[in-house]
Amino acid sequence: MRYRLLGRTGLRVSELFLGAMTFRAVTPETREVLDVYADAGGNVVDTASMYGPSEEVVGELLTGRRDRFVLATKYTATRDRADPNAAGNHRKNLVASLERSLRRLRTGYVDLLWVHVWDRHTPVEETMRALDDLVAAGKVLYVGVSDAPAWVVSRANTLAEWRGWTPFAGLQVPYSLLSRDVERELLPMAQAYGMSVAAWGTLERGVLSGRYNDPGAPASRVSPGSLGERERTMARVTAEVAAGLGVPAAQVALAWALRRGTHPIVGVSRAAQLAENLGACGLELPEEAVRRLESAVEFRLGFPRDFVEAADRSPDVYGDAADRLDGR
Question: Which residues are catalytic?
């Protein structure tokens, strides 16, 4: 397992993050999953306030070795459906949600606190200032944002820069060979701000692992009959590329996301499944394999990216040296 810096900070985070959303109880299996991940060099455990008993399970699993891990959780989701102030990204819910998470996780601080989803009703200034206060208090070390538009994240980090607040160091988004929408705005924005990108859904609920390639495959997180031609095509091509490399299909899908500079969040229920996924680290995809994977199903960046990239190469816009300029 290799490491990267979290955003523009000095915090070292492993290539693959361990997603704890499926952790429902402390069992020999969940203990083995964490042990296998740690033994491979993994150090980021990602959970959330709304993932059922996950925080309590993670808290117990990390007892005695909490400082060894980069512990990440999220807030936004409701703590009490009858209370309108028990949800959202405002200061009141942030403070109450974090205090509950700290009790569940059996710790005095979290390394990385994610804003779970954009709350359109709370000014981003309030969220960023409230997060900065918790960083100053030592209850949160770094902050990130999940599932928000690029313009919101950009505005938040610009405000943080101007006012000396803690900026978002990480961005969490859905990203896979089947779901590449974030390449239009969010990934370029993250690159411009030096943010780390955590990718969820990289295996598309098992579709890209090849689990449902057989028409008679049993339903699990997905019903095979619900898959369309696009999903089946991508799963088939991923499996064919994997067969040519002599590795499982899941490793190819994860290695592609790693190659794009993201940190895939791996959520598993069995240690053997995790051990297989860990094989993606260090898997080099040949350029021909990458081209085949990325052309298997249609994806267009769309406006404005297609238009701007075409303009970059246009002598009518930038003159005769347009195609000889080495830019960012």
Answer: 51
